[in-house]
Design brief:
heterodimer, A: 4-stranded antiparallel beta sheet, B: alpha+beta, 15-stranded mixed beta sheet, 4-stranded antiparallel beta sheet, globular
């Protein structure tokens, strides 16, 4: 229960509604203000209850477009159950094309929120206390943002809990993407401060994905995201299996699937110098341990040689760098073993 | 001759000079933290006796990194024996904008709009003045490597503005094709812009040929875009007769680049451009190289602040091949979000179509 955020729509009401979450605000230019966050509810009675969130990070647009377009094209007769959708949960960051909110908050590091905190903290608190408890499944759609470019695909954070893990794997398959990527909990981060980490801590079914990035969307990345969202919603039996939409193109043949295991600390490659980074490998390329995968150039010095970045392991490139200006400690690329069958993945 | 900028090594070497030199263009500066300062722009010269002198430029816009990396690589690997004549390389013209990840300089200046510069202007204007007065006149040819920057993403390609001077245009076409790029984009002059204020425009004003390219964009580089630019640059220098070394870039990338010399012509910007007609967040609905018909949907502009606003559709005003899509997603009314051109299999096919049109 939140005392500082309210909803203009009644989630119990049947049918399709669009409205706002309203968070109390007070700004330099508006002493008494309300921050309005667009939210949609489609309630068709009995069935699964699903929350889908886009734009957790502002500059990750693929999911925001997929959700906004889906909601426009969806009728209450298309689903069985309840769908709550927030297409752009950090829209001030989306308009600034930044990962973080203009106040510096990273929406994916502030869970379970703070009822009396900053606007994003109030929203996080509302999501944690009102929306997540209400639903059976949470879907959180990401991409690389400006800093990263991912193979568009489903993701899961490895869980030590076998029962929950098998549930995550089922959902990983639910996206039905060409690529799936498995990674460890974020280094140096309280996992529960992340939206998906918070959901996982409750043992609640969760879908996550990284659908491209580099701060640009393409027709292809947008189509892959739409298709994955439709598959995921069908896999939890919210969307009816015969759902079709002429204006929401979601046809994509997946002939082969690939699972990339990025759990090892040697999957991560970090910048060890400040400079201008050059990707030397493409997404999906196979690399051998010790091979040059990138170079950090020093454009301010006319005769300094670049610092070469070597693969610390063999495998498939799943993530490359977007924004090329890097500083020491920035993540440059991720490499992992590729499997065609997830059950072959070692413990 | 500039009195406010100089090169740290002598540019007027005797014609039989042989050697590789690195140094800086030093521009008088005075900042809050350094009252008496020099703004330093790295420059490399590799000279081997007499022959053409070619100037390689990149980082004209800060967030266009493909050319900067290709030129940095070239500056380091080029040896005296690789060269006949002289290659002068300035890998990053707009160093401060490059460091900031922006198109414009931190003082708000667009380096590609300040030509012919100003001897007692801002640092950017002083640098432009030095290029225009001290460098362009002593060079036989200039290549200025661009990309879409953060806001745009091009098919990695050589680009050429269709100048009206036929003799110059013929030389520019020859140089563009010399790069052996898969695609050459033929564009018109920037609408509502003084063409002489652009760096390539200033070179053309001095009656010299200039090669330009738009090698990707979105403020990122990929192994693929680097392959296109690195081999294009090497092919260009070889074609100019100034590079006589091994096929390093060209052979390293020969399998990943189709060198078929296709042309995409989009000179009539009034129909080739698709522009945002409202502010919002833009979603690309077409991919690069996709064929579209007049009236086809190319993108959507979302209002993410509203729960019930309709999306605004952006449609193609001509049929053709998509040569440019939007990078940076937030758009303001009037921003170019897509460019469409007519695809020709070769320059000959394009020129033939022009002759047929004028015959009619």
């Amino acid at each position: 229960m939140s005392g500082t955020v309210s909803s203009s729509i009644d989630f119990d009401k049947r049918g399709k509604q669009s409205g706002y979450l309203k968070a109390g605000d007070s700004t330099n230019n508006s002493g008494w203000a309300t921050f309005n966050l667009p939210i949609h509810s489609i309630n068709s009675g009995a069935g699964p209850k699903v929350l889908i969130i886009g734009g957790n990070h502002g500059d990750e647009y693929e999911g925001q477009f997929a959700i906004a377009n889906l909601i426009r094209n969806l009728k209450d007769t298309d689903i069985a159950g309840e769908l709550i959708a927030i297409p752009s949960i950090s829209y001030p960051a989306s308009y600034a094309s930044t990962r973080l909110w203009p106040d510096g908050s990273n929406f994916n590091r502030i869970f379970p929120g703070n009822e009396n905190g900053l606007i994003p903290e109030k929203i996080a608190h509302y999501v944690a206390t009102e929306l997540i408890p209400r639903v059976d499944v949470v879907m959180d759609i990401h991409s690389g943002g400006r800093g990263f470019q991912w193979l568009e695909g489903a993701t899961m954070t490895w869980s030590a809990d076998q029962k929950y893990r098998s549930d995550l794997i089922k959902n990983l398959n639910g996206w039905n993407t060409r690529y799936s990527m498995i990674f460890p909990p974020q280094p140096g981060t309280n996992e529960m401060s992340l939206l998906p980490g918070y959901v996982a801590s409750l043992g609640k079914p969760l879908f996550t994905g990284e659908f491209g990035g580099a701060g640009i969307t393409t027709a292809t990345s947008n189509r892959i995201t739409r298709c994955a969202l439709i598959s995921a919603l069908k896999s939890v039996s919210l969307l009816k299996p015969d759902f079709q939409s002429k204006s929401y193109d979601h046809q994509l043949e997946i002939s082969k699937r690939e699972f990339i295991d990025m759990r090892g600390s040697d999957s991560y490659h970090w910048a060890e110098e400040e400079g201008l980074y050059q990707n030397k490998k493409r997404l999906g390329d196979r690399v051998e341990k010790g091979e040059v995968i990138g170079a950090i150039h020093f454009p301010d010095s006319a005769d300094r040689k670049p610092h070469l970045v070597l693969a610390s392991r063999s495998g498939t490139v799943g993530v490359i760098r977007g924004y090329p200006r890097v500083k020491r400690g920035d993540c440059l690329t991720l490499v992992g073993d590729s499997y065609s069958d997830l059950s072959k993945l070692p413990e | 001759m500039s009195l406010t900028a100089n090169c740290s090594f002598d540019l007027n070497t005797p014609s039989d000079y042989k050697g590789k030199r690195t140094g800086y263009i030093q521009i008088g500066d005075s900042t809050n933290n350094s009252g008496w300062a020099n703004h330093c722009v790295p420059i490399t010269s590799v000279k081997n006796g007499s022959g053409p002198r070619v100037l390689v430029l990149s980082g004209n816009h800060g967030d266009e990194y493909e050319g900067q990396i290709a030129a940095l690589d070239l500056a380091r690997r080029l040896e005296v024996t690789d060269v006949k004549g002289e290659v002068l390389i300035i890998p990053v013209l707009s160093t401060l904008a490059s460091a900031a990840g922006t198109r414009l300089w931190p003082n708000g200046q667009n380096f590609n709009r300040v030509f012919p510069g100003k001897v007692d202007g801002t640092v950017a204007e002083k640098l432009a003045f030095f290029l225009s007065n001290d460098l362009f006149p002593i060079c036989d040819s200039v290549i200025d490597m661009h990309s879409g920057g953060r806001s745009m993403h091009f098919i990695p390609s050589i680009t050429m503005v269709w100048v009206s001077n036929v003799e110059l245009r013929t030389e520019m076409v020859r140089q563009a094709l010399m790069c052996k790029s898969e695609f050459t984009l033929l564009g018109g002059e920037q609408p509502s812009t003084n063409p002489d204020s652009l760096l390539p425009g200033d070179v053309v004003r001095q009656g010299k040929a200039v090669a330009t390219g738009e090698f990707g964009g979105s403020g990122i580089t990929t192994a693929q875009s680097m392959a296109v630019i690195s081999s294009g640059l090497e092919n260009y220098l070889r074609g100019m007769g100034v590079y006589v070394g091994k096929d390093i870039a060209a052979s390293a990338y020969e399998n990943s680049i189709d060198q078929s010399g296709k042309i995409i012509e989009s000179r009539d910007y009034s129909v080739s451009f698709a522009s945002a007609l409202t502010d919002g967040i833009y979603e690309n609905r077409v991919d690069l190289l996709q064929h579209v018909e007049v009236g086809d949907l190319v993108g959507l502009i979302h209002n993410l602040k509203s729960a019930d606003a309709e999306v605004v559709e952006v449609r193609a005003r001509r049929s053709g091949t998509v040569a440019l899509i939007r990078g940076y997603s937030p758009v303001t009314t009037g921003d170019v979000v897509c460019m469409i051109g007519e695809l020709f299999p070769s320059m000959e096919a394009f020129e033939k179509s022009i002759q047929e049109k004028s015959a009619r």
